[in-house]
Design brief:
Blueprint: H1 3-19, E1 27-32, E2 35-41, H2 44-47, H3 54-66, E3 74-80, H4 84-92, E4 97-102, H5 104-109, H6 114-123, H7 138-150
Parallel strand pairs: 3-4
Antiparallel strand pairs: 1-2, 1-3
Amino acid sequence: MDKNEIMRLAAAEAEKTMRENIGGPFGAAIVKDGKLIAVASNTVLRDSDPSAHAEVNAIRKAGRILQTHDLSGCEIYATGYPCPMCLSAIIWANIKKVYYGCEAWEAEKAGFRDDMIYDYLEKNRKDENLLKLDQVGHDDCERLYEEYTKEKKTVY
């Protein structure tokens, strides 16, 4: 399969679920060693889950199929430039190569707010009108990290 064929699979999945009003116009495919592992689409509307983006769904599906949280050696194809959440999930999954179809500004033209989030992250982290960040319960949370480290649990 070449890159365009893989992207077409992601786009076809996005089109199918978009037409069924399951989610937006976003699809993703994960490939490892030239083998298609997972294809998924955005299911935000069906799942009532704002994190059910195509890339996240594809990562979850690939992890189940490969039975690992570490998707090193995988590549991801996304119909749109990944939003900040999806980019973070891609990084956490150890995927090092992303192929994308459309730019973030194109998603914005369609009404999606990825660019607004990028602007927030880049320009004004302390804009409390958009998002307020307050630290609460530090000591309790820090104990969780300390216990995780002490027990030498898997770091991912």
